[in-house]
Please model this.
Amino acid sequence: MNRADVTIIGAGVIGLAIAAQIAGKGWEAYVLEEKATFGQETSSRHSGVIHAGIYYPQNSLKARLCVAGNRALYKLCEQYGIGYRKLGKLVVAITNKEISELETLLDKGRRNGVEGLRILSRREMKELEPNVEGVAALFSPSTGIIDSHALMRYFVAKAIEGGVQIAYKTKAVGIEKLGAEYKVSVRDEEEEFPFMTRVVVNCAGLYSDRVAELAGIDIVKAGYKLHYAKGEYFSVASSKSKLVKRLIYPVPLAKVTSVGVHVSFDVEGRMRLGPGIEYVDSINYAVDSQHKQLFYDSARKFLPFIEYDDLEPEMAGIRPKLQGPNEDTRDFVIRDEANKGLPGFINLVGIESPGLAASPAIAEHVLSLIQAHFAG
Model:
């Protein structure tokens, strides 16, 4: 039976970042991906934002890994020619009541180590973005956007160069602990077969709770059952794309586990609005054109130049959230499940935003868990 040291399940941006991080360490390593190529689900259906780290509780994994990942991503982009734009971002208060929320975000961001944050008066905001409406704004200069496909291509190349093998169209269908190793059963286009591995890293994104279940974890008891949160995007007419230079966000609503419908751009400068949030029971990437009015009404509050006919349905993504509707925000789950009798089974569950921004730091964190397991 074939043997590996490390097996990563999932070739989204997180799995690939980890593969790149462990490459060249002398381990026999595999990445298993059910789809025909990498990054086909959550990793390619998002805003492409390099978040700064202002939304997350102090000392949470989301906060620490986002702030570290933000800095690491910009260095990677510069070093390896990965497309990005460090645009900066405004979180806009529409009413005076919302200014206190900006102050809360400012404090939270500073405690998390985000640099350069400041609150702008209406006049200062208008100097930066004359076409944006509001009474004040929080300015985050380190927020930007990235070509996520180029980032994933870089991770793939680094992983393969360092000896990691990536198996596409290969699905993990069984995980069984046998002694100090795991027997992983997989199914490819031709057959089903098992192999042994010392470490399993579960980076299966939307299916990470199911992979945890394969290993024998009671996902309800563990709090790992995922909720699917669909986020739709509407593109904005190209004639309006030059009217705003930065990412524009509303003040996030309490108990809504989303940062709200916001203005983002791709690296070519195309403007879009999104994502919304709608909890769904299944994975479906169709955009409901009837939601156009909701997006228009949301955007008009701070973008008075937007017209209804400027919006067209573009795409949708699904976020794997640990919290359901009206529940408190949950942190990332990134842990070696030794306390569940599964040492060397490293779970990454509920990796949603800011997963992209945090990806290099998540990979470093997981590397430390793998090394600790091997050292033990």
